[in-house]
């Protein structure tokens, strides 16, 4: 057998090249919607059919087929519709309070998203890990019926063990508990927290892979980056914060990172529950139904502030929903766009939208950390800054600890918060969840936060970028070439 292989190995390699390369190239041609991506992958496959096809299998198939569950109200049943439907926001009311351009934003959201813009919501800003974790742990401790938690990272450190203990105690009280952790995020701790949760009786699963054996092909590059906690169908938490001690000053000390999380009540809780419940059903096959998982009746009045809805996006039928919302928001801006993002690597379309807004006279300020936890991403960001600055936008480096917050405000009226970064991974590869908010007071609070950051931030200038040594700029550009998969 070995002699046969040794004699005919060129023929075997040729046959493998055809059998692997041709189907891969056909799949690229038929499924990729962006011509640059399609041409790039076909080139890689043609130049190296075997290795290129394997790379495409691992990193190039960016659309996950999931059985459609319909919108949130179909998932949660008639009992949900009866007491939530009255909170739906009317077009005329949005136009009267925020202007016709933001009524257009509502229409856009209605068409690219599966969730309804609702009135009667409340959102509390949780500043930093200490405040966010304490509020989340209090909610878990007070749970009486159900807890649904989805997160990207759940470390087995001091913070993670506190959550694991609180969840296990909830199980002992008879609370229905489900925990979903991304397969990549679960690997951030060795050993992972999965065993600790299971020992406490918590029903836990991983998204899109197996922590011990490896990631599930061909979707190994697709992750859930969502952070959702829903307790008793009454209160929800979301934002950018993972469960790890890096964000808690009491545990991480002076090297702690900064982040912003949010506590929500009202009809928007049903949106967030629906997103996490759909992900749970995808990985486990279990439909979360019955009395334990019922959505509570909001305590607010229909028609009262604030207006909000979840925006679920990801490499399935919700592909690029967050990008389309952002493009719409930039196009309706008249006075200001404020962006806070730890990883700012927008594509050409978003850069063009920001530049167009700036050249219409809109003040566009983008705040990124001066110190970043991902050096390669920061270098790639730096390589792209000149494109943004040439479009009359301003970029600022925020001093102090690394800031992981994701905040966006348009015209002091419309806000966008959640898990999405402005980078290729969040916009095309990750499953993300964000919340668009129509509320003057909430937008003002976020603008005040950006004002405080700007007071001590350092502006990024074209002159300073061009003054950097050529070797550094070249390395940055090389890293930028790989930015879609950083």
TrEMBL record:
UniProt keyword Signal present: no
EC numbers: 2.7.8.-
Role this protein plays: Could be a virulence factor.
Transmembrane residue ranges: 6-26, 38-59
Subcellular location: Cell membrane; Secreted
PROSITE patterns, A to Z: PLD
A GO term, aspect molecular function: cardiolipin synthase activity
This protein's name: Cardiolipin synthase
PANTHER family linked: CARDIOLIPIN SYNTHASE, PHOSPHOLIPASE D
Primary localization class, coarse: membrane
UniProt topology in membrane: Multi-pass membrane protein
Name of the encoding gene: cls
Segments forming domain PLD phosphodiesterase: 220-247, 399-426
One GO cellular component, as annotated: extracellular region
GO biological process, one term: cardiolipin biosynthetic process
Entry keyword set: Cell membrane, Lipid biosynthesis, Lipid metabolism, Membrane, Phospholipid biosynthesis, Phospholipid metabolism, Repeat, Secreted, Transferase, Transmembrane, Transmembrane helix
